[in-house]
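Bit of a strange request maybe. I'm writing a small parser for structure token strings and I need a real example to test against, not something I typed by hand. Could someone generate the tokens for this chain?
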Amino acid sequence: MNQRYADTITALGTALIAQVPVLLWGPPGQGKTSVIESLGDDLDFHVETVIASLHEPADFAGLPMLDPVRGTTRMLPPGWARRVVEVGETGRPSVVFYDEISTTPPATQAALLRPILTGWVGDLRLPPGTCSVAAANPPEIAADGWDLAPPLANRFVHLDWILPADVVRDGFTIGWPRVPVPAVAPDLVDRATVSAKLLVGTFLRARPELVTRMPASSEQSGRAFPTPRTWEMGARLYGAAQAAGFGETVILLLLNGSVGTAAAAEFLEFVRHLDLPDPETLLKDPSGYEVPIRRADQVFATAAAVFTAMTNDPTPERWLACGTILAKIADAGMADIAVLYARRWADPATRPPGTLPTADQFQSLRPILAELHG
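Reply from user aminoacidic:
Good idea to test on real output. This should exercise your parser:
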């Protein structure tokens, strides 16, 4: 199979386990709908296809109807949303496939924001775990195409979708490829996502101008660009891909599709040079930690990682080891970093019952501890 196509369908599967809405961009007739339907068969998901360009705003926002008993207005959901809810009541999850959204007028695009972001359609809530996948043709080749509005574009991870000739050849002769959705334990994904969010937070601390960068042209406005929402999506995708053991190419596709190619490239380059120590190793032997005083980015990420790892298993020994790391950071002249986590470290909600800081820790973190204990 063509490697780029294989990486793209792997990225699609990763987005599904990370619960991030996906938008597949490609010319018509490239098998986008068929792939989503086969995905539903493989995973025993109900696939509800909604041709967005054939719908009105009320089909997503709800149709207003007066309730004479209560004297209020209800927003009645459409039939497709009720079907998804009915399937969910049987315990079967759903993928809602919004097709042709680039030929959807701006008013209908605006109405699409709510079901994709919150799961609400009118006064009806789609079941938890409902996945959103959309497909679009680039506006220059779509019939009566519209540029995707930035608020809607900002709710998806964008993946370019082109069916290579060898995939078409094999599809007609031996069968079409399936979307590989990795079987990864949810707790592994959750832990990897926490670590990914730490990396994103560390990066944005160093590059605050990339927290939000609006598209510079109308051509870019319908694609990925960095905002707090898309960085959070990118972190979830990065964590899911890491937990599944996927390579850098898949991760790059997912981050490019979340925050844009420029921000993704800077983030991955930052991560390569961060060279973080293993937090579990530091919690076992905190005395061996030497603070790299010229690498504030690494120190910040290390403090965050050690504190987070400790809270996953807050034994007295691990809590004291975390305190030693924070004390070392404060002693190295980086009290501004230490204080961010020392306040939470010393909080009774985090501290194991009956455990107190050592004399050295108290001396190094005295201002913080004195503040907490009045």
